[in-house]
């Protein structure tokens, strides 16, 4: 298969997987927690790399997932200790990210991660790193991300009702006997896993964008959770494909272009969504004014 | 030691340290207002949104021009805050999601521009990379004097309008009732925060600049209950972390300044959280143990009392709840 196709598949998988999980973050008003986790896993990745001396194992995924859940835990601990939530998020993730950047720049000669790689990733190199599993040869990144995506789908499928209730009315969920704290950390673990799987190949910034932007665009179009999840996957894939075309045409950063096209897609929804768009609401108001 | 001596003797290093000192003070002071207005993460958005502005300025000029960079950063930073506000106001999207959208999309667009510049092969685009994680060593006298002017204006404004800003943070409705133009003051604080971010970009970088607005105020909050003292302490903390971070990062040539400054601030925060009088965790833990012991003693003495007086017997001496 051609290189371009693999890149598009990688981008689409990242976008679909992150967008899918991101919907719950948006509904729970924790979008910035996703941003925080996707920065904070960096030291986890670097430390796991030192311990295992390679980038391609499940060990690294586990290590960074632990760090991601720990981030959520630190933020929660600070919050219960009386620090307001936005400041708690800010202090935890910037400190952890700073540790990660220092580790990367101190040992940059030993490992192939560098600080810019961390931010925008090297999605263009994805097709050169193939791995064979069960007789199928695919890029390592595709294996990893599709695995995480499948796991996310499975877990969300199993706990769909619980996640839904916790997202829309956490108090009622608690009253109904749903383990809210467990569901919270389950979601955080999913976010961390998605982040880590995507981080190395596409960089932190595309992860943040895909966690938030497709879900937000979908949220403007529908009131049903199922439809929102489906739409966010579609939006993610569309922006990945459009981004790749833009990036090739102008010869610029692929993940940056994917982010930009997701932003454009969001802007379209923001303006022209049939029910919640700015333009349609103005038209609606005008129509009402005329009718009275 | 040799390094410290060279820092003191080298005029350029002195400029760099002066710059980080000023940056620390102004972000510490302005950060207090962002913190109290619960807009800490807005700083993160502004800093990330500055990247496309810097790149656009570079594309216009074709070379490193700090003044133009700052203007570009100011422009897109303000555009970013405007986008956040209008997304929240005109749609059902909540503020946290709006922050995430603007942050990532602006930054993503910035990287597109950055790579676009890189492939045109402009000779000195290396100056742009310094804006990601900060390169205090790239500060020259002209940069520092501009930072000093801006920081000076910001600090004087805070001093002059301190009472108004205090009102804005704690009870803006009351302020409106008193006839203060709260909308204008609000916009002014926002503009001042954007300016602080902009002057810090070169030393700390777009990615971690927000930490300088968040961490020093948070650390200062542990030491006092008064806004004036909090602003002062936060400014001092910011300055300390700026200077120490710059000096430490000077030891390792490959290290960017930004992360080290942030880590210096984080250490101050941890220290404050643990050791501050009254609000610190250690003091509170000691206090809790003391209360627990007192309760245990009281209970023990009450049990002893009860053991002496038989049930249904004489009325106890009172105080026996």
TrEMBL record, chain A:
GO terms for biological process: response to zinc ion; transmembrane transport. It is found in: Cell membrane. It is a multi-pass membrane protein. InterPro entries: ABC_BtuC-like, ABC_TroCD. Keywords: Cell membrane, Membrane, Transmembrane, Transmembrane helix, Transport. The keyword Protease does not apply. The keyword Ubl conjugation does not apply. It holds the Pfam family ABC-3. The chain crosses the membrane at residues 6-26, 33-52, 58-75, 87-108, 141-160, 172-191, 197-221, 228-250, 262-283. One of its GO terms (cellular component) is ATP-binding cassette (ABC) transporter complex. Belongs to the ABC-3 integral membrane protein family. This is Metal ABC transporter permease. The lineage of its organism: Bacteria, Bacillati, Bacillota, Bacilli, Bacillales.
TrEMBL record, chain B:
Keywords: Cell membrane, Membrane, Transmembrane, Transmembrane helix, Transport. The keyword Transit peptide does not apply. One of its GO terms (biological process) is transmembrane transport. The chain crosses the membrane at residues 15-36, 41-60, 66-85, 97-118, 138-162, 174-193, 199-219, 231-252, 258-276. InterPro entries: ABC_BtuC-like, ABC_TroCD. Residues 302-321 are annotated as: Disordered. CDD domains: TM_ABC_iron-siderophores_like. It comes from the Bacteria. It is found in: Cell membrane. One of its GO terms (cellular component) is ATP-binding cassette (ABC) transporter complex. It is a multi-pass membrane protein. This protein is probably a component of a manganese permease, a binding protein-dependent, ATP-driven transport system. Belongs to the ABC-3 integral membrane protein family. This is Manganese transport system membrane protein MntC.
């Amino acid at each position: 298969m051609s290189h371009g196709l693999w890149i598009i598949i990688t981008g689409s998988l990242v976008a679909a997987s992150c967008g899918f999980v991101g919907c719950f973050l948006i509904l729970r008003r924790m979008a910035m927690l996703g941003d925080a986790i996707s920065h904070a896993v960096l030291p986890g990745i670097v430390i796991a790399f030192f311990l295992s001396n390679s980038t391609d194992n499940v060990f690294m995924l586990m290590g960074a997932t632990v760090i991601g859940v720990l981030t959520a835990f630190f933020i929660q601990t600070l919050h219960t200790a009386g620090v307001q939530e936005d400041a708690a998020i800010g202090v935890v993730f910037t400190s952890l990210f700073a540790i990660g950047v220092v580790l990367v720049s101190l040992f940059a000669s030993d490992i192939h991660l560098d600080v810019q790689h961390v931010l925008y990733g090297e999605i263009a190199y994805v097709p050169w790193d193939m791995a064979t599993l069960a007789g199928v040869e695919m890029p390592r990144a595709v294996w990893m991300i599709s695995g995480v995506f499948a796991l996310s789908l499975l877990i969300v499928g199993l706990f769909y009702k619980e996640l839904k209730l916790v997202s829309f009315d956490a108090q009622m969920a608690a009253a109904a006997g749903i383990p809210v704290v467990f569901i919270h950390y389950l979601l955080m673990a999913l976010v961390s896993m998605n982040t880590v799987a995507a981080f190395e190949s596409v960089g932190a910034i595309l992860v943040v964008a895909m966690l938030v932007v497709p879900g937000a665009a979908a949220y403007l179009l529908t009131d049903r959770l199922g439809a929102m999840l489906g739409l966010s996957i579609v939006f993610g894939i569309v922006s990945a494909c459009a981004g790749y075309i833009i990036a090739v045409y102008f010869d610029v950063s692929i993940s940056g272009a994917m982010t930009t096209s997701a932003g454009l897609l969001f802007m379209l929804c923001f303006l022209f969504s049939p029910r919640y768009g700015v333009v349609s609401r103005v038209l609606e108001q005008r129509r009402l004014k005329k009718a009275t | 030691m040799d390094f410290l001596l060279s820092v003191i003797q080298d005029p350029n290093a002195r400029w760099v340290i002066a710059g980080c000192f000023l940056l620390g003070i102004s972000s510490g002071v302005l950060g207090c207002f962002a913190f109290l207005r619960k807009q800490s993460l807005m700083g993160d958005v502004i800093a990330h949104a500055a990247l496309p502005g810097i790149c656009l300025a570079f594309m216009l000029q074709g070379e490193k021009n700090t003044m133009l960079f700052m203007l570009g950063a100011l422009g897109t930073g303000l555009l970013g805050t405007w986008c956040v506000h209008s997304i929240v106001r005109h749609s059902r999207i909540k503020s946290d999601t709006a922050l995430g959208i603007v942050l990532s999309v602006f930054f993503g667009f910035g990287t597109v521009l950055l790579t676009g510049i890189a492939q045109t092969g402009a000779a000195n685009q290396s100056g742009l990379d310094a804006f990601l994680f900060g390169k205090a060593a790239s500060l020259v006298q002209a940069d520092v004097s501009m930072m000093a002017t801006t920081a000076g204006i910001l600090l004087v404004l805070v001093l002059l309008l301190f009472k108004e800003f205090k009102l804005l943070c704690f009870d803006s409705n009351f302020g409106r009732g008193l006839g203060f133009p709260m909308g204008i003051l609000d916009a002014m604080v926002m503009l001042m925060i954007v300016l602080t971010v902009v002057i810090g970009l070169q030393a700390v970088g777009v990615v971690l600049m927000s930490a300088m607005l968040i961490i020093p105020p948070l650390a200062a909050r542990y030491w006092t209950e008064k806004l004036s003292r909090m602003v002062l302490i936060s400014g001092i903390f910011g300055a300390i972390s700026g200077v120490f971070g710059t000096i430490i990062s000077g030891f390792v040539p490959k290290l960017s300044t930004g992360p080290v400054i942030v880590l210096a601030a984080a250490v101050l925060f941890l220290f404050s959280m643990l050791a501050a009088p009254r609000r610190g965790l250690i003091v509170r833990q000691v206090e809790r143990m003391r209360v627990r012991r007192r309760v245990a003693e009281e209970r023990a003495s009450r049990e002893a009392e009860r053991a002496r007086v038989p049930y249904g017997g004489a009325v106890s001496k009172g105080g026996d709840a």
